[in-house]
Write a structure and sequence with these properties.
By secondary structure, the chain is mainly beta. The chain has 5 helices and 19 strands. It has a 16-stranded antiparallel beta barrel with strand order 1-3-4-7-8-9-10-11-12-13-14-15-16-17-18-19. A hairpin with a 2-residue loop joins strand 7 and strand 8. The N and C termini lie far apart (55 Å).
Amino acid sequence: MRHSIVESIFTSIFLSTAVTLSVFVSSVSASASPDFDSVTEPDAFTGATTINRQKPDTTSHKRSFVSRLSLGGYGEVTYTRNFFSDNVNRYSHAADYKDAKGHGRFDLPHVVIMLGFDFGKGWSMGSEIEFEHGGVEAAVEMEQEEVGEFEQEVERGGEVALEQFWIQKSFMPQLNVRAGHMVVPVGLTNAAHLPTQFFTVFRPEGENQIMPCTWHQTGLSLWGQAGDWRYELMALGGLNSSLFSKENWIKGGQASPFEFTPGNKWAVAARVDNFSLPGLRLSISGYYGHSFNNTLQSDNGKYKDVKGAVAIGAFDFEYKGYGWIVRGNADYGHLSDASLISTYNRGQSSTSPYKRTFVGKGAVATAVEAGYDMFRFLHKRLDQKFYVFARYEYYDAYIPEKETPSYEWTDRNRMAAGINWFPVDQVVIKAEFSEVFLKKQFNNEPSVSIGVAYAGWFL
């Protein structure tokens, strides 16, 4: 029953978004002055290549070393005041935390260095090193109060990851081959994850809740562009169902607790973008792959026939013109054998590095956001932009099987409103108020966030 209701909501939002977008585009097309913003973003190898329409350069062997080198990056610093409790029991004993004072958080969500080089004759490389939440600060110190013993201390949590590293051969604009570690172009956030490509202070919450964002894995990719069309087809390693959870569906499945990533399963991902209408990008993307037994010590006993097939379908769009930026997405995913995977995961040893929670048979994330540049009202145009925006999203990371319990706090609506000030194109100052609306037996989760971010090329 709950699953059919979710599917109905998903279908309604998808259709209403498409109709609204058609009406919106038709109305603005009839206006006098187009003044379209460019759809192309300055991220030739950040994983958002699905919206980059530049043709590959096959004459770079004639250029200087510096002109063939690409150096850039992006980063964010944020502060959030959450007006709700962060206690782990806030859902199981919601009444006890109704009047919680809340808490504040400083964060460095992402600081990234991007480095690329064009070797010439169509050969190039790209890399991206990401420091999440300030990286990991660890040191060995001699403790004077413990008889001079050496002790390792972790001074700050966080992650350091090689998010991308690939080699590419470009034959023609319509055909490029890329091998290595790349961003999986499924959904809006993975295709456009720079902080200048979304209005909210943090990455869009819905997609970030149900699948990896940024989703990066090792594989082989074919991509190209012809006229108003761009495509990407990717073969990659499968996910690991032992890392799925009720809070985040398949989000943790790309990770590996080992120095390598087990490769017992394979998957495919694809994306197609269309730019036929001025200022508008329409995109569809998808993923399919098996996830069970994609780890060490594979189970060949009673679970030997379990597949754990993950299937995701996504639609997203972006419109830029007349001072407006409008974006939206609708994603739905399904996991086969979810009940068996839940039983298997919950039965793992407490010393294992894996999740030991239930996982849903499906997940959904839909959203739409719109912002208008208020500086367009000025008689004298400034070389700056000041967007006032609003955002709505619905998401649920846990659509359960009949055999598994229901956790209604995963079913969420979120609304946000705020500003984005771009003093220059590469720098944005953000502020927003948001609230997550849960079922009536839980407490809503309001918050205020501010942030400063940049994204651009230095060379």
